[in-house]
Design goal:
Largest sheet: none
Helix content: over 70%
Strand content: under 5%
Number of domains: 1
Order of helices and strands: HHH
Structural class: mainly alpha
Low-confidence stretches: none
Oligomer: single chain
Number of strands: 0
Shape: elongated
Mean pLDDT: 83
């Protein structure tokens, strides 16, 4: 009887591990799709508004503007998400205060 209980626990453990892995894969996939959508939006914006205003050397300049915009956006979103995670996870605050 004990072996059956142990086996059921192991099965649930593996099922949970599979579900967690599937969740990570799905989240990563949707994150990639969202990133590609933002990429297309930023590129279209730069093509529409920047390249039409600046014609000389617009290729390099538009790439530089694109890189700066994407970097600033990534930093801003990462900082905001980190702050939200800290607010929602009081245990991490306690760990940091103890250090």
């Amino acid at each position: 009887m004990e072996v059956v209980k142990k086996t059921k626990k192991e099965i649930k453990k593996y099922q949970l591990a599979v579900i967690k892995q599937m969740l990570k894969l799905a989240t990563t996939g949707f994150g990639l799709v969202a990133a590609l959508a933002w990429n297309e939006l930023i590129r279209s914006f730069i093509d529409e508004f920047i390249k039409t205003k600046i014609s000389v050397g617009s290729g390099i300049l538009s790439l530089a503007i694109y890189a700066i915009v994407v970097t600033l956006l990534a930093v801003f979103i990462t900082l905001q998400l980190s702050r939200m995670a800290e607010k929602l996870n009081p245990e991490r605050k306690e760990e940091k205060e103890e250090e």
